[in-house]
């Protein structure tokens, strides 16, 4: 039983919660801790450093929110398949977890506008595969992450067979084991993975990105005070170029969206 519990913990199914989510900005300040759901398997947006701490662009954004509120920060690792559930169950106050902006998600969470980021979908492929176009993937198995909104659309549009796993480590392992021809996922994640020598030597991202989609932060439906607070914070990140500087800090090329929003907002007086 103990081994089973440890395995669930390591898989991210069970996580320790030192605090339950608070309802609104005043409640968070009174509690003294902001609880944020972030990815821990998505370099450079959220990953574990050699000490085991969760670091990355989104933990830095969460830390900035906590600093502005004058409270401590608690990060809770989430995966695509459980992040909304964690928010609805009150296990986190908010999500900054690479979540694309989709109508079905806006029906069950309170999205923060404007979206703080935007990214394409792409495929991590072995160099030896020699794949140069999406059409060449027809009829071939693609590893994927469970819960990714584009899995079905990629399968229908390009005729691929989607083989989905929880998180990102399992599909990457399956790719290395030769169980699929490539790993379809967010383009920035693949860019981050190719920063590692262990992947850049034998893998590449030769295809043109597709399905560009904004990413949203989210709070529980009805949490109006935290929603309004985060909307103002997001605009300030764009005005100051904070997200562009975070992309550069973690070694990825700033996206067209982050650069465009900085240019649009940098002289704003609001």
TrEMBL record:
SUPFAM superfamilies, alphabetized: Periplasmic binding protein-like II
Alphabetized UniProt keyword annotations: Signal, Transport
A biological process term (GO) from this entry: amino acid transport
Protein's name in the database: Transporter substrate-binding domain-containing protein
Coiled coil: none
GO cellular component: extracellular region; outer membrane-bounded periplasmic space
Xref: Gene3D superfamilies: Periplasmic binding protein-like II
Pfam families to which the protein is assigned, alphabetical: SBP_bac_3
CDD domains, A to Z: PBP2_polar_AA
Residues annotated as domain Solute-binding protein family 3/N-terminal: 33-253
Top-level taxonomy: Bacteria, Pseudomonadati, Pseudomonadota, Alphaproteobacteria, Hyphomicrobiales
InterPro entries linked: Bact_solute-bind_prot3, Solute-binding_3/MltF_N
Family statement drawn from the similarity comment of this UniProt entry: Belongs to the bacterial solute-binding protein 3 family.
Cleavable signal peptide: 1-21
